[in-house]
């Protein structure tokens, strides 16, 4: 329902908070930018807490699609919530534990015994590097391919159009045409599962299918720099650049502390740097 909300430039945080409850919005993702860095704030409505991340590197979904030979984005890809996978988030560190709980609560829990496999179409991967204290954010689409079915047969079943057979002597020529074997594509390289229900027109129940992931973006490298008790305000529970327990500071004030500590922005090696575009920070979702 929140996807139909029409925001205006004069709207402020309180306006969004007032409609969050009726619309079923549980979390805010707020992007901001200073002179040298971009930030992502993840806040739980209505009373917090709020986690602030510095965006070291990012690539938009459009950038990911342009880098792929065959980008994949079915029309119903975003109809259902994504699955969440957390890697490297060890327990014991309170800020890291709070980060883990925050991201787990963003995505609905699933029951593996009753979940419909057809609704599992996306996966969000968060990988924490304890040495660099950076979090890699990746977003993939999930696709299944039946094991032991050639690419030609699979495309024939999935397509709603009759292929051009005018230049062939027999239908077997279409199946055995040079360049397409009878084996499925890269079945050995992908994990295979036995399906409990039908998915699509070619993946049938009780048959084996190869599970493959294709990145859809966006892609981000994040660093947790601050945790506030309230919704973008309140007591600072954690700060990467100063002592916790004080009043929350703005991104500009926090950037000043960062610069004074000699922490310089890293150059973006894989994606676009936040300084390169003023409007890119609006399209990360």
From TrEMBL:
Q: Where is the composition biased (Acidic residues)?
A: 253-285
Q: Name one GO biological process term.
A: ribosomal large subunit assembly
Q: Where is the Brix domain positioned along the sequence?
A: 1-233
InterPro entries for this protein? Brix, PPAN-like
Q: Which GO terms describe its cellular component?
A: preribosome, large subunit precursor
Superkingdom of origin organism:
Eukaryota
Pfam families reported in the protein's UniProt record: Brix
Region Disordered, residue ranges: 241-285
An MF annotation (GO) of this entry: rRNA binding
Its name, as the record gives it, is Peter Pan-like protein isoform B
Q: Which organism is it from?
A: Glycine soja
């Amino acid at each position: 329902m929140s996807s139909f909300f029409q925001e205006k430039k004069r709207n402020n945080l309180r306006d969004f908070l007032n409609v969050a409850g009726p619309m079923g919005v549980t979390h805010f993702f707020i992007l901001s930018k200073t002179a040298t860095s971009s930030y992502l704030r993840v806040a739980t409505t209505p009373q917090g807490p709020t986690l602030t991340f510095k965006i070291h590197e990012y690539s938009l979904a459009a950038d990911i699609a342009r880098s792929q030979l065959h980008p994949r984005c079915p029309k119903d890809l975003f109809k259902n919530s994504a699955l969440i996978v957390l890697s490297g988030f060890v327990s014991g560190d309170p800020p890291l534990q709070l980060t883990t709980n925050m991201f787990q609560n963003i995505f609905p829990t699933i029951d593996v015994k009753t979940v419909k496999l057809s609704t599992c179409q996306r996966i969000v991967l968060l990988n924490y590097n304890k040495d660099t204290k950076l979090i890699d954010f990746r977003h993939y689409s999930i696709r299944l391919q039946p094991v032991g079915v050639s690419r030609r047969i699979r495309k024939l079943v999935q397509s709603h159009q009759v292929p051009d057979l005018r230049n062939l002597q027999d239908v077997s020529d279409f199946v055995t045409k040079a360049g397409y074997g009878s084996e499925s594509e890269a079945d050995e390289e992908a994990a295979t599962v036995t399906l409990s229900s039908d998915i699509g027109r070619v993946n049938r129940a009780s048959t084996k299918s190869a599970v493959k992931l294709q990145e859809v973006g966006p892609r981000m490298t994040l660093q947790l720099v601050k945790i506030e008790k309230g919704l973008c305000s309140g007591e600072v529970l954690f700060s990467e650049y100063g002592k916790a327990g004080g009043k929350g500071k703005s991104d500009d004030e926090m950037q000043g502390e960062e610069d004074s500590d000699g922490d310089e922005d890293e150059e973006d090696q894989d994606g676009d740097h936040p300084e390169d575009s003023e409007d890119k920070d609006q399209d990360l979702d």
